[in-house]
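Records of this kind hold a single protein each, on a pair of labelled lines. With that in mind, the following record should read easily:
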Amino acid sequence: MLKGGVALLFVKPLAVQAQDDAASVRPKEGDFLVKVGDPGARPLTPDDIPAGATQTMAWPLDPRDGTVRSGSRLNRILLVRFSPDKLSAETLLRAAEGVVAYTAICTHTGCEVIDWHADEQLLSCPCHYSKFDPKDGARVVDGPAPRTLPALPLGTVNGKLVVAKPFLTRVGFEQA
């Protein structure tokens, strides 16, 4: 459009562009989960997640077109498996055969929650040492994180882990 001799350009903001990118869309109901780094993008089963062991990092996968939703680090998911009797009642409701899913993004400053304390069975962020209890809704048990890790409810379809609902709370961190 030309107005007063000046061309006006209409450019989509980056946030809108990202929404148009299928790989950046947040996990959706029915998405499978695939292990980060798996070139075959094979959907995970509950048995692929070792019980009581360090977290498995995963991406959502759109079952309709095979898009791995790895275009945004906010889509990175951590999976941990426990005996169902070890999970709090609320956590059990959103688990699939003892597998629970949370964002891998710490709610403090956005670092990735990559550490596992096997003796305590707690997740931890290496940046500022926040610890989260995945058996109890990923509640903060130590450190500066201001809130729990957002949970991603799971289910199974034909033995494969699937997203049952979107993240229950906003994924991201607190601005200082």
User: Anything to note?
Assistant: The radius of gyration is 18 Å. The longest helix spans residues 14-20. The mean pLDDT is 89. DSSP finds two helices and twelve strands in the chain.
